[in-house]
Amino acid sequence: MTSISTAAPVVPGRLEQFSTRIAFFITGFSMSAWAPLVPYAKGRLGLDDAGLGLLLLCLGIGSIVSMPLAGAMTVRYGCRRLIVMTGVIACLCLPLLATLSSVPLMVVTLFVYGASMGALGCVTNIQAIIVERASGKTMMSGFHGLFSCGGILGAAGVSALLSVGVWPWLAMAVVALFIALALYKAAPHLLPYGSEPGGPAFAIPRGVVLFIGLMCFTVFLTEGAMLDWSAVFLSAQRGVEPSYAGFGYAVFALFMAIGRLCGDPIVRRLGVHKIILFGGLCAAAGMTVATLIPVWQAALCGYALVGIGCSNIVPVFYSAVGRQKTMQENVAVPAITTLGYIGILMGPAGIGFVAHLSSLGAAFMIIAVMLLGVAISGQFLRV
């Protein structure tokens, strides 16, 4: 088949920017819609905590496997086809995740769903790099802000439907319909091409791409820590009722979304290096405040600082990938995204290991030191 990328490219404009925002919103919405279904799946399948952990690992494995493939396929088939295809696959998987009672079928479906999410995340970032570069403006924080908004709305919307007694399969049908309509709206102005052809389909990150990927690993690890351990810390260390402990992650996610939605003019004003410096210092300070000041109010303030601090670091890294010349972006974007996902998947487990040997507070302080490392190391980024 002839590569779509060889066709005369459409020069991205306002309509392409709008469709890119929708694609990011769809990605965040699709990913988060699954989270409220996890307790239902656990009960329906009769799994204990260990079994559920192994089941959820299938989602992460699917994501990591699909990312390099997505980069290579974007060159051949273009962003539009890949975004629509992976979005449709997610629409088909979600109702199944709400109804399947067979563990083997659930394993396969979660793997496919994870693969669709990993590929969708990669392709939307490749499209965003092309669109931002064509505009000559800083836009990546706003794009990622729509991802955060989609994540908040997806989790909150599904939780609201389930709380009023809507059947899980019906809630997922509503979600799938919403995603399908959003794809229909975005599709005409998604890019029919991807990155420039050339370079290997798969490559180990090197040079500045490896440097960016390792810093992304730390920021994504921090996000994973907030997702999996913030409520545990509030409950076990600060005496917050378990039913309210989830507000810790909600505060983090809300302030991350606000930081990203307001981020583009701030990035333009301060520049990449100051964003990484101030963001890393803010996040490290937030983690320190949450850990060392022994009241729950301080922990919530700390989580807010972590959200604000982390909000624009990853977007400026993706913009930097679009400017570097060491590796083609269709290889570089999957590489740094994969390293980030490894941080999300392995980080919480590593935190649990450190907490077992010492304490959860000690694990959080290790993350604070790693965030300081990002703040300092980011000053050596040259792209």
TrEMBL record:
GO CC annotation terms, alphabetical: membrane
Matches recorded under Pfam families: MFS_1 (PF07690)
GO MF annotation, one: transmembrane transporter activity
Transmembrane segments: 22-40, 52-70, 82-104, 110-131, 143-163, 169-187, 208-232, 244-263, 275-296, 302-321, 333-354, 360-381
KW Transport (keyword) present: no
Cellular compartment(s): Membrane
Keywords: Membrane, Transmembrane, Transmembrane helix
Domain Major facilitator superfamily (MFS) profile: 16-383
Highest taxon in the source lineage: Bacteria
Family annotation (Gene3D superfamilies): MFS general substrate transporter like domains
Protein name: Major Facilitator Superfamily protein
Matching CDD domains: MFS_MosC_like
Membrane listed as a keyword: yes
Organism: Pseudomonas graminis
Topology term for the membrane: Multi-pass membrane protein
